[in-house]
Design goal:
The structure is a single chain. This protein is an alpha/beta fold. The strands form 2 sheets. The protein has a 6-stranded mixed β-sheet, sandwiched between helices. The chain has a 6-stranded mixed β-sheet with strand order 8-7-9-6-10-12, covered by helices on one side. β2, α2 and β3 form a beta-alpha-beta unit. The longest helix is centred in the C-terminal third of the chain and has 37 residues. The two termini are 33 Å apart.
Amino acid sequence: MERRKFLTSAALGAGAAALASPAVAASHAKQLTIVSTWPRDFPGLGTSAQRLAERIAVLSNGAFNVEYFAAGERVGAFDSFDEVASGNSQAYIGADYYWGGKHPAFNYFTSVPFGMSTPEWNAWIKHAGGQALWDKLSGEFGLKALACGSTGTQAGGWFNKEINSPDDFNGLKMRIPGLGGQVLSKMGASTVSLPGGQIYENLVSGSIEATEWVGPYNDYFMKFYEAAKYYYTGGMHEPGGGIAFGMNKAWWDGLSDYEKAIIEAACSEELALSHEEAIAKNGEYLGKLVDDHGVQVRAFNDDVWDAFGEASAEVFEDARAHSSLATEVDDHFQKTLRAQGAMLAAFEGTFINQRNRVLGLI
């Protein structure tokens, strides 16, 4: 799939996709219009969103009349929140940290610096009280959100120069959203939050000098290697990016238990599928980036990581100062992270480190 093909597909006439719902008479089907923050056929995130919309239609057996609009086909990517909160559409698929300007606590329901890996975040949401806090936050804006995808631990990003010290971020123009962007701002970077479909052009033109996106599988199709050759592995900013299926709360509250179960099942299925897909494909596409395009893979050194940590502590204090709800979410998140992180380090961490040592993978 060519990057330009999927970025321009909407402009070439790709409109709403009405998805098959065969069994229930159309007059009895509930309308479910979904808007997305990613372009149509966007590898990884976009195709995951389309797969989820199709799955809801199939599972509903006609209970829902599902229409899917990619970014720009009904509203702009960053207009999806207001589109659904207003009731003009019933749901969005996106990263909730895009709405951090509305409330900083939304960042925790995508990913935050030095935060949870995907298994930890899933456990927090599903079994440790995270969903109740998400409901409390989203409810203030007339929304109800469910986890519906994950990218896994994301790459540190693409740079047109090597990063050898914290000072290398000073004055750097970089696309990085969420609290991760605020961390780099405190380190002197000039950060912006751009929709995925606008990153390549800004990087090639020099409007930005660096960008983070997702990981090798997703990034390969973006062709960032045409403008930046240094690719940094695991970043501090998104250790386990979670994707949201955000619904108009009044619409959600009007569903039957059966209709809610359809959406919950489809979201849970796609949450697993998207993460597994990233794990399955990231290694293959990292090889393609290196072998076919001369990308130079790097890792941030300890001095840079320590600077990330110091700036992150300031960012979390800023977030907590916003409101009592932001403090409540941060308190709960950090407490759960430390409990789960210690357990995972003792079990999964010990095993993976020793396995890789014995097998010569490190």
